[in-house]
Amino acid sequence: MKVILTADHAGMTIRNEVKALLDEAGIEYEDTGCDCQGSVDYPDYALPAAERVAKGEFDRGIFICGTGIGMSIAANKVKGIRCALVHDVYSAKLTRQHNDSNVLAMGERVIGPGLAREIAKTWLETEFDGGRHANRIGKITTYEG
Ligand code: RB5
């Protein structure tokens, strides 16, 4: 599995926690930022990273900002992206099983790094259930055109 990881200035701590998780798990990833100390604009990070997932360059994306909301809104504008904003382990599992989410968004001003690591681990390890859920995702894909 190849993962693209990105964050704005408000997501640096969880970004580093997810990097440690990916390193420990031996999962290949690219970190696309940010490297700044100042304020940046989350769409500048979410949109290019989401496009690279949509193109198939990466299997999954993990996007971090203050709330996770901006990253998730931007990512879901990209055709083929199913970004789930998740702040609990149950939803991390279910959004893989039912929604086949290909991007995970989390907010560093909402949860701490320990929970973020558990969420990311669960999300990375859980497979899509397929079946009736594939039919439902197909309806979204058809709508996207
Ligand atoms: C940055 O202040 C903050 O707005 C951003 O990280 C994110 O929470 C937006 O949704």
TrEMBL record:
SUPFAM superfamilies documented for this protein: Ribose/Galactose isomerase RpiB/AlsB (SSF89623)
Gene3D superfamilies: Sugar-phosphate isomerase, RpiB/LacA/LacB
Keyword line: Isomerase
One family name in Pfam for this protein: LacAB_rpiB
Positions annotated as active site in the UniProt record: 65, 98
MF terms in GO: intramolecular oxidoreductase activity, interconverting aldoses and ketoses
Taxonomic superkingdom: Bacteria
GO BP terms: carbohydrate metabolic process
Residues involved in D-ribulose 5-phosphate binding: 8-9, 66-70, 99, 109, 132, 136
Keyword Nuclease attached: no
NCBIfam families per the UniProt record, alphabetical: PRK05571.1, rpiB, rpiB_lacA_lacB
Family: Belongs to the LacAB/RpiB family.
Protein name: Sugar phosphate isomerase YwlF
